[in-house]
Amino acid sequence: MTQIYRTLSLLAIALFLGACTSKPIYNPEERFSSQLAISDSQMQRAIVTALHDRQWTVQSVKPGMIQAALTVRDRHHAEVDIPYTSTAFNINYRSSWGLDYKNGKIHGNYNRWVNRLRDNILKELSVDPIVESVNELGAVTQGVEGASYFSFQAGVDKATQAGLLDGSVKFYLAGQQPPGELRKIRTVTSSRKTNGSNKSDEEACSWALQSALVSLQNAAKKAGANAVVEIASINKRDLYKDTQNFQCRAGLLIASVALRGELATIK
């Protein structure tokens, strides 16, 4: 009787643990503003690169659709469809074995693999999922009623006067025409925040901008670039473009500036 009881107890525990690890299938859907100007080929390249980086096997690449599979220790296998356009991509479950799929639920490891793949694709598109998550926190959005706009050049001048910028990298907003022959290297983003307490919106935003500019300067130097061009402000995957001003989200506690541009060399 004791042995039967033990067997039933172990079976109950196994079923309980199995239920704990079973999760509704995660099918990410990501959307982007057309202002980000991502081409179909860039989206395709970002997805394929991310698949390789996460050790997925690319099964098929066609316009608008990529199929891939992942096998872990020859015990777990999953296959996905990734439909895409220049402004969106999805990661959709197709099939699996060894992952206890049933009635729309699957082992939690599958969702972790897919979420990591999603994060890698976003990073290839110069979208930082960690920054996006932080930006949604209440401390960041508290007191933010709308965007504020201030002089970009004034921020560059202040950072230069403070010794934060050394003049080796030039900055050009979207719509400004850099002099000389231009060769673009890659897209770069920078998101910076500063304490907004006891500061005016303009002062807090200026500090955040200066920190973002330092980050862009460092990225340019590392890439062998001497300029950052086509700079625009980012707000929730949308862009604000202006030839004079940058966009800032100034709240009661935190001011936030996010910029996107192209590293380039100018001769």
Instruction: Output the helix-strand order.
Output: HEEHEEEEEEHHHEHEEHEEEE
- Number of domain modules: 2
- The number of distinct helices, counting runs of at least 4 residues, comes to 7
Low-confidence segments, given as residue ranges, are: 13-20
Q: Overall 3D geometry?
A: elongated
Largest sheet report: 7 strands, mixed
What name does CATH use for the topology of the largest domain?
A: Translation Initiation Factor IF3
Q: Briefly, what CATH class of the largest domain? A: Alpha Beta
Q: Gyration radius, to the nearest Å?
A: 24 Å
Share of residues in strands: 35-45%
The N- and C-terminal alpha carbons lie at a distance of 87 Å
- The count of DSSP E runs of length 2 or more, i.e. the number of strands, is 15
How is this structure best described in words?
It is built from seven helices and 15 strands. The protein has 267 residues and is of the alpha+beta class. It folds into two domains: 103 residues, Kinase associated domain 1, KA1 (TATA-Binding Protein); 137 residues, Translation Initiation Factor IF3 (2-Layer Sandwich). The strands form three sheets. Strands 9, 10, 11, 12, 13, 14 and 15 form a seven-stranded mixed beta sheet that branches. Strands 2, 3, 4, 5, 6 and 7 form a six-stranded antiparallel beta sheet that branches. It has a two-stranded antiparallel sheet with strand order 1-8. It is elongated and about 75 Å long. The N and C termini lie far apart (87 Å). About 3% of the residues have low confidence.
